[in-house]
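Consider the tokenized backbone below.
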């Protein structure tokens, strides 16, 4: 590891499957320090966490993805790290991921770098191809991305009140609004699992159906409209494209998904929460809802 550029990493846990825990520490040779932020209801502490370059934090409740990312970023800053590699519990790093990022950082004196994004390989799809160069992009997922902590200190933390969904999108837009760039590194590979995806046919097209839970749709709807309101005047094309995605999702629920009425109900709840500026974790657990991840 190059001493001039100090890279740490974090992974956010939420009730992970049993096979995930042993895999978390497999790629520690790529980074200087790993922060494990555990939002689980369960106890996931493992003897493999007892290493000098691992910090394990048990929150004893689900504080949300944004809060966990902010915890890790603040710890990394306090310990003098320059970058934070943000990981999901269901993603797998290519063995050369950090090496590819380091190569870019050494080869490019980019004063406006905010975020490096990997090339995602999805288990659900085959034959995925991309460009053969590094290039600026509009938004990226947090999974496998490298956050410049100098940019983080300048533009502020992830929005805690989002809890889950559109956290990365909002942050990418905020970075770009403040003049920072998001660069996709084509040789930096992340193997990512999108979750429960079903393929369906519509006329001559193949359609991917995500089957998000009703509660997840609540957060997605509420947060995406907050993003629209905040960034419409800065990035109108993005907002228009994402609004089209939103309507496509509504149609997919109608045509292909189960629990249609329940899902539409929670989408409406999310939109009403946006109108009423109700943010944070949804606490009214008396509502009947499918609370899967």
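A designed sequence for it:
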């Amino acid at each position: 590891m190059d001493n001039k550029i100090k890279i740490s990493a974090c992974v956010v846990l939420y009730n992970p499957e049993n096979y995930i825990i042993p895999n978390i520490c497999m790629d520690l040779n790529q980074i200087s320090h790993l922060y494990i932020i555990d939002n689980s209801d369960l106890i996931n502490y493992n003897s493999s966490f007892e290493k000098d370059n691992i910090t394990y934090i048990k929150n004893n409740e689900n504080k949300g993805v944004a809060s966990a990312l902010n915890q890790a970023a603040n710890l990394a800053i306090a310990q003098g790290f320059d970058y934070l590699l943000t990981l999901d519990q269901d993603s797998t790093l290519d063995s050369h991921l950090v090496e590819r990022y380091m190569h870019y950082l050494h080869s490019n004196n980019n004063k406006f770098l905010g975020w490096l994004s990997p090339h995602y390989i999805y288990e659900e799809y085959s034959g995925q191809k991309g460009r053969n160069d590094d290039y600026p992009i509009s938004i990226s997922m947090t999974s496998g991305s490298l956050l410049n902590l100098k940019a983080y200190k300048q533009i502020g933390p992830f929005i805690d009140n989002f809890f889950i969904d559109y956290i990365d999108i909002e942050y990418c837009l905020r970075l770009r609004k403040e003049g920072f760039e998001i660069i996709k590194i084509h040789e930096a590979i992340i193997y990512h699992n999108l979750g429960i995806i079903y393929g369906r046919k519509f006329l001559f097209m193949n359609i991917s159906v995500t089957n998000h839970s009703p509660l997840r749709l609540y957060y997605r709807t509420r947060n995406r409209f907050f993003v629209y309101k905040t960034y419409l005047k800065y990035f109108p094309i993005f907002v228009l494209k994402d609004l089209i995605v939103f309507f496509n999702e509504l149609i997919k629920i109608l045509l292909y998904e189960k629990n249609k009425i329940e899902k539409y109900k929670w989408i409406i709840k999310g939109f009403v929460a946006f109108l009423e500026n109700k943010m944070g974790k949804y606490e009214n657990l008396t509502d009947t809802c499918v609370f899967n991840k």
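The chain has eight helices and eleven strands.
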